[in-house]
Amino acid sequence: MAASEVILPFPARIEPVRGIRSTVIVGSFAVLREHGLFDAYVAALPPEARDLLVHVVVGAWIPLDLALVHYAACDAMGLPVDTIAQMGRGVFDKIRGTLLGTTVRMAKEAGVTPWTVLPHLQRFWDRAYQGGGLSIIKLGPKEARGDVVHARIAESLYFRHALRGLLGGVLELFCKKAYVSMLPVQDSASVSYKFQWV
Asked: Taking the CA atoms of the chain, what radius of gyration do you get in angstroms?
């Protein structure tokens, strides 16, 4: 593969994100509890949204407006970005079977690298989000750029860094160590990352 090769083009038609799988939110609740932050999170929720979010059931689609309330409460806690990324990685550890399915088993096979999974990230995204699109560009032998667009939840600092941690978890199924850094934000409905691994 040549440098700067598009290995996952954006979908031909991209609708804005309109929903998020509740499994992601429930995974986030579990990680917040593990870090002793769930009470602070609940306190940051507007009273009219508390019951809707705290009692959400696994496997449903949560409308974007409610997901934005969730991420606003997470943002309100003012956590360090590296802590948020670690928490995003924790969410991945909890939901990876739902997100990746049989790909987790493939990760154990010899010769499987991040290049095996990166062309399929849109399919994995679609299991967790209704709408939005991804593109992956190869920058070097062990380096790529990933762009997420039409995702208003990217307004949230918490979401952007939690996704950074989650994507690191995905890549580390296929390599020894992954490094995911966030690139400068172009607009509030997009986020871009640089992936590197060994």
From this structure: 16
